Amino acid sequence: MNITVKKLAELHKPTHNIRRHSDKQITEYIRSIEMFGQVKPLVVAEDGEIIAGNGLYEALLRMGRETCDCYVMVGLTDVQKKKLMMADNKVYELGFTDVDAIEELVKELDGDVDVPGWDADLLEMLNSTTDEADEVIGSYGDFPENEIAPINRHQAEEHVPYAETPTYSVAPAPQPAPTVSAAPQQPSPVLEMSTPSEPQTAAPEADSGVEQHRCIRCPKCGELICL
């Protein structure tokens, strides 16, 4: 593996980084770098895209570093780069912590439990005897008398009594509306329909012997014209 020193300004994160890094993790990265130096190179593509080591990259930036050790992978396709990113993050999660091995390692630290990423109190607990561990566990939750009094006084000062339970007037239950008896309905009058009779032909007027004439008035001159 050829390690190359590259400027941090030439590197960039991938568009989709599936691993999120908390401030606590970045802080522990910084502690590790200050204690041991950069022991793992960043894995980057030819164009400077970071494939593995984004958390370490953020820690180096916060420390004000300008360069870092990198392993440049050549000839990867976009699909291969994405698959390598996913594999690098997931394969690590498939392992588990061997507590027995940690206990043995802690005993060999000679009491120096300042290890980046680990809680010092937990490591001290693993390095203690059974009696010492029971004493520490039994002391959890205990407060000295000189600390209990100020806590009780502070709680009493902040105590606010509950307000009296408010009373609300209860509206009377709605009464059912009185039932009004409907007036008896009168039967509808039956209309008698008469069947039309045969039309009667008017009798012709009797001839009076006088000659009848029809007269009209001219609309232009107004002269009466008898036909």
TrEMBL record:
InterPro entries from the UniProt entry = ParB/Sulfiredoxin_sf (IPR036086)
Q: Where is this region: Disordered?
A: 167-209
For this protein, the record's Gene3D superfamilies field holds: Conserved hypothetical protein from pyrococcus furiosus pfu- 392566-001, ParB domain
- What is this protein identified as? Predicted transcriptional regulators
